[in-house]
Amino acid sequence: MEFKIANKAKTVTLALIVIGAVFMGVGIAMNAGHGHHFTTRLLVASLSNVFFYFSIGLGALFFLALQYATETGWYASVKRVIEGVAGFLPYGIGLLVLLLAVVSAMDGAHIYTWMDADVVAHDKLIQGKQAYLNLPFFWIRTVAYLAIYFIFWRGFRKRSIEEDRIGGTDLHFKNYKKGALFLVFFAVFSSTSSWDWIMSIDVHWFSTLFGWYTFAGMWVSTMVVLVMLVLYLKKLGYLEKVNDSHIHDLGKWTFATSFLWSYLWFSQFMLIWYANIPEEVTYYVNRIENFKILYFGMFVINFAFPMLILMSRDAKRNSGILTFVGLIILAGHWVDVYIMFAGGSLGALAEIGLLEIGLGLLLGGAFIRIILTNLTKAPLMPVNHPFLDESLHHEI
Amino acid sequence: MADKVFYAMYDDDDVLKDGAKKLVSKGVKVSEVFSPFPIHGIDPIIGVKNTRLGIMAFIYGLTGLTLATIGMRYFMIEDWPMNVGGKPNFTYMDNILAFIPISFEFTVLCAAHGMAITYFLRNKTLPGMPAQNPDPRTTDDRFVIELRASDNSKFSSDELEKMIRETGIVELDQKSI
Predict the structure, then answer these.
(1) Residue B1 has what pLDDT?
(2) Which of A260, A69, A34, A309 is nearest to A181 (CA)?
(3) Does A395 touch chain B (CB under 8 A)?
(4) DSSP conformation class of B172
(5) In this complex, which of A270, A276, A395 lies closest to B100 when CB atoms are compared?
(6) I need a labelling partner for B51 at 20 to 30 A (CA). Which of A135, A303, A341, B115 fits?
């Protein structure tokens, strides 16, 4: 069935964008007098928001590739929804490149201090990392990650539409190979890109599981968006072949990835707390001094809410509970991403005000609108997916 | 009182499922199904209640968590205060992060073992216990429905037998117990 954006959705997304823009405008007007600090704050807010939505699109692309590579059956009837979310990727890539270009042109804008030659000249530790952390190599890597993500996204999308037309298993096996290949690239890039874009903000600090941590946060946000989008479409009467078992599976993914994220958060925190090495604990000292309530509150929300509420089988099939938990942990992970960017750059000066929230709403509105528009461009149910029949009879 | 048991044997799980549906729709009570593997969707047909194993798992897990906490508090704080990276060790809370992995492991250990043992006990399948299934072939490639005459007193034995024979069985066995 063809999907058409409901008028209500058009109004709501537009309202989000307008409210976001108004908040942001007020936030800018209130703080514009702060000079350098304001520029940094604006860029940090932009970077964290853009990365948050970009990472949801990327997470959807990863999830799609994972289903291809594992030849999963159940997901076939929600495949177009995953593709719709992954379709935000080109926009996210564009915004991210734009922001990183602005930041690079401003010598790091006090966010990436290793981009500033004056800072590096007086900093032995950064000098030691210069073989990796220098502008040309940073841009080579960034372009390589984003180009490869984009190429894979375009290929998956093209073959998915083509499959509706010609069917057969040739395309399926091509997707299988490309999916596996994407996972190989993604395994490396998801780690290194998070070092480049996020970990290098705390330039003196490093953690070997930072990449997984970022990736787990990305994955859980994606699953939450997918489950809420599927529930929304079902409520409007689309996706009538998607049954409770599909919702249950998506709920289980939300539950499991929340645990993955909490596990990695705790592992990173506990190991650094245990060893108590000055060069490592600075990261947490900064967060405990400047973001104590937000940082631990965010952990409790992202861990305890899904654990306690989504534990039972009935909860994972209840659309009200899933949406409630989904919205809460989406907000939790938004805060997590914000602290990842703001912790090392703004530190004590960081605050979540109208500016940050406004930008989040503005981009959120655009994000939803783009995804809904993507959904209109192809039938919501693939017709020739080799596992479609299995998916339609999915029962757990 | 003497009871009569019918064992209706099938060679396909789908045929058994359809047969069970047919019998139940006529008001027959199926007391048990024996199969070499779990038959998906048979529970609601023959009216098996949802398992309460999950509740027990939660209780076992809670027991494990409590035991681990009590144990570690005694070992590491009271009896012989442990030095974790030079951190204060007067209270359990000071070093709680160090104890979380063990709490987690012991919770899982108790929940898993408790569940497995409960499962064996409840099903009377502890190692060495006599087998309950009526025919060894139900551990290979046959599927059996068990009906008891006492559960179905509104039907005569002949009526029951006739209804069973209409469901595509391969063998019918009757026993008086």
Answers:
(1) 54
(2) A69
(3) yes
(4) E
(5) A270
(6) A303
Is residue B115 located within the same domain as residue B159? no
Q: CB distance from B87 to chain A under 8 Å?
A: yes
Q: Does B84 lie at the interface with A, CB-CB under 8 angstroms?
A: yes
Q: Does A7 touch chain B (CB under 8 A)?
A: no
In a domain, B19, yes or no: yes
| Residue A1 resides in a domain | no
DSSP states of A133-190 as a string? SSHHHHHHHHHHHHHHHHHHHHHHHHHHHHHHHH-SSHHHHHHHHHHHHHHHHHHHHH
Based on the fold, state whether residues B112 and B64 are members of the same structural domain.
yes
How many CB pairs below 8 A link A and B?
17
Q: Is pLDDT of B175 > 70?
A: yes
Question: In angstroms, what separates the C-alpha of B62 from chain A's closest C-alpha?
Answer: 14
Closest-CA distance, A183 to chain B, in angstroms, reads: 30
Residues of B in contact with A273 (CB under 8 A): 97
Q: A269 to chain B nearest CA, in Å?
A: 9
Inform me whether the C-beta atom of residue A173 falls under 8 Å from chain B C-beta atoms.
Answer: no
Taking only the tens place, the pLDDT of each residue in A72-111 is: 999 999 999 999 999 999 999 999 999 999 999 999 989 9
* Nearby residues of A258 by Cβ (< 8 Å), 6 or more positions away: A220, A302, A303, A306, A307, A310, A329
Using a CB-CB cut-off of 8 Å, the residues of chain B touching A274 are 84-85, 97-98
Q: How many domains does chain B have?
A: 2
For the record, the structure tokens of A153 come out as 């996204």
What spatial distance separates the first Cα and last Cα of chain A, rounded to whole Å?
25
Domain that holds residue A344: 7-392
Cβ distance of A273 and B40 shorter than 8 Å: no
Residues B42 and B8 in one domain: yes
**Placement of tokens 């969707």 in the chain:** B41
Residue A276 and residue B101: Cβ atoms within 8 Å? no
Determine phi and psi for B147, rounding to 5 degrees.
Answer: -120, 145
Mean pLDDT of chain A, nearest integer: 93
How far is residue A99's CA from residue A50's CA, in Å, rounded to a whole number? 9
Q: Which of B85, B100, B101 sits opposite A275 (nearest CB)?
A: B85
pTM of the model: 0.90
**Least confident residue range of A1-10, A166-175, A192-201, B52-61:** A1-10
Q: Where in the sequence is the domain holding B31, given as residue range(s)? A: 4-50+144-176
For testing the chain B interface, which of A274, A288, A312, A314 should be mutated: the one with the most B CBs within 10 Å?
A274
B67 within domain boundaries: yes
**Same domain, yes or no, for B21 and B37?**
yes
Q: Is residue B57 part of a domain?
A: yes
Same domain, B118 and B59: yes
The number of domains in chain A is 1
Give the CA distances from residue A298 to residues A178, A215, A305, B106, B109, in Å, rounded to whole numbers and listed in that order. Answer: 36, 17, 10, 27, 29
Chain A, nearest residue to B95 by Cα: A274
Looking at the structure, tell me whether residues B45 and B68 fall in a common domain: no
Q: Inter-chain contact A395–B41, Cβ cutoff 8 Å? A: yes
